[in-house]
Amino acid sequence: MGATLLSVRxxxxxxxxxxxxxxxxxxxxxxxxxxxxGPNGAGKTTLFNVVTRLYAxxxxxxELDGRSLLQTPPHRIVERGIARTFQNIxxxxxxxxxxxxxxxxxxxxxxxxAGDALAMLEYVGLADRASMPAAALPYGVQKRVELxxxxxxxxxxxxxxxxxxxLNHEEVEELGDFILGLRRDHDLTVLLVExxxxxxxxxxxxxxxxxxxxxxxxxxxxxxxxxxDVIEAYLGGDQETAx
Length: 243
What we know:
InterPro entries: AAA+_ATPase (IPR003593), ABC_AA/LPS_Transport (IPR051120), ABC_transporter-like_ATP-bd (IPR003439), BCA_ABC_TP_C (IPR032823), P-loop_NTPase (IPR027417). By secondary structure, the chain is α/β, with parallel strands linked by helices.
């Protein structure tokens, strides 16, 4: 860690009269797990959509490894080394687990065989379900399929949009350990949007806080926990599942 991988500078996004992001700036260092928290409507997913080029900002600059992302079309973002999962699972439900991973690899510009996809399913603990239709799997297992589909592109930066949503307490704890392992095993940098504060604070090296489209705080988990602006705007009295 130490070198900046993702640089967000003065990003502003407007939807008509609504300012979804208002001059947001922060850096994500290489090798970090960086948490991004804030109440519903704070602009977290909008920022993910800017980084992956689904939205064009009205103002500001984005750089990956010192090179602008704003000139990169959405279909080439994965070639730059960025992959993401979504808040709402986006699998091909009638396809098998293996087919989902293979299709994900194809759409991400990498040519991989069934052996590569099976190895990734083995890594996420789903090799024995490779032939099952995705729709037949429990919600938490579908989330692991989506992770495998993102990882098959061998990204440098992985964006996780509420990966713990819908999981029980034990599954959330397992997910935290899994994300820490991802960082170690795949030399990944992770940007994590999540409402489960216990997860964010346990695994993040750095946390940024958004409120009404503005960045109101940033620092280590302990610094963010103690920040009175964060407590007032977001954490309140419930630091486990604040939404």
